[in-house]
Amino acid sequence: MTRVFSGIQPTGEVHLGNLLGALRNWVRDQHTADSLYCVVDLHALTVPQDPVELRSTTRQLAQLLLAVGIDPAVATLFVQSHVDEHTGLAWIMECTAAVGELRRMTQFKDKSDGASFVSGGLFTYPALMAADILLYDTDHVPVGDDQRQHLELTRDLAIRFNNRYGDTFIVPEATIPPVGARIMDLQQPTRKMSKSADSPQGTIGVLEDLGAVAKKIKRAVTDTDNEVRFDTDAKPGVSNLLSILGACTDRDPASLADDYTQYGPLKADAADAVCAVLEPIQARYAELDADPGAVDDILSGGAAKARAVAGPTLARAREALGLLPAR
Ligand code: AQP
């Protein structure tokens, strides 16, 4: 059976980009593939975190993944730091990666640019991400477009390791959705919607009040020529609304444009479609609030299942490297 793995960081509020670019595909894949989904809390440590907040956002994110539709009866849901093999393989991947290729990662450049403190972990983050994926003999990694470069690096590291030490890792492939892979900020549509950007009017939280969501979409930045056309370079704001509507209604954004002659109705339909997607997720999230212990139980079972796969993979890599086994 095909193996799928993907992760999401417990940093900030989960937004519409995360949902349409990644999480909805996780829910779809769990029915056709052996799927493992992970709250990657160690990745959050690349920037300083408040400990109390990190603990609660990690649990809340797991609760949200369940609310979105991850079913622990068919998929494995766990927290990265509960499975020590991730850090064990990460060191091996750091030693497999070249400094030059880590330096070329655009996300490192974006996040380190102008920052007053840049951790070593921010630089080596893609090696930990490679470890996350390779530990599970992953065939497919459902991610948004922003992760394309990290996935390419993961493939390069797997191939390099296999060439040096013999076949050890499956070389994974990214699965990037045709629509919704890069949802843009509603106020600055040339920038992707992002958890860490300080743009409350441009970002739609999955758990946000639906009235506020509709208002934000109706106030989204477009342009002055009033022509509805899908053209991400010339018309980024309008194209973003078409992508959002298309992703929520399973329609092609370019052909959707033919249905509209004005921005107002496009915005109204996009707002309705987004609210229709978010409403059941918010209702399930509220139901799960009643029993926080159930989320912890699911994560504990998930970690045990994940360890059973990750342990043998790490042992295989250690043996291939020539590390002396412990007795
Ligand atoms: N704007 C987006 N459109 C489509 N997909 C997106 N993803 C993120 N932003 C968009 C996808 O969501 C998954 C989980 O994201 P993550 O939290 O692991 O990664 P991230 O890129 O760090 O998320 P953010 O929200 O953009 O946070 P910051 O601001 O820290 O960079 C991934 O599959 C990602 O592709």
Outline the structure in words.
The protein is mainly alpha-helical and 327 residues long. Helices cover 54% and strands 7% of the residues. The protein has 13 helices and 5 strands. The protein has helices at 16-29, 41-44, 51-68, 85-96, 99-103, 106-112, 120-134, 148-165, 210-218, 236-249, 253-256, 263-289, 292-321, and strands at 3-8, 34-39, 75-79, 140-142, 173-175. The strands form 2 sheets. The protein has a 3-stranded parallel beta sheet. A two-stranded parallel ribbon has the order 4-5. The radius of gyration is 20 Å and the shape is globular. The protein starts with a strand and ends in a 6-residue tail after the last helix. The mean pLDDT is 96. The structure holds adenosine-5'-tetraphosphate.
Keywords:
mainly alpha; 54% helix; single chain; 327 residues; globular; two-stranded parallel ribbon; 13 helices; three-stranded parallel β-sheet; binds adenosine-5'-tetraphosphate
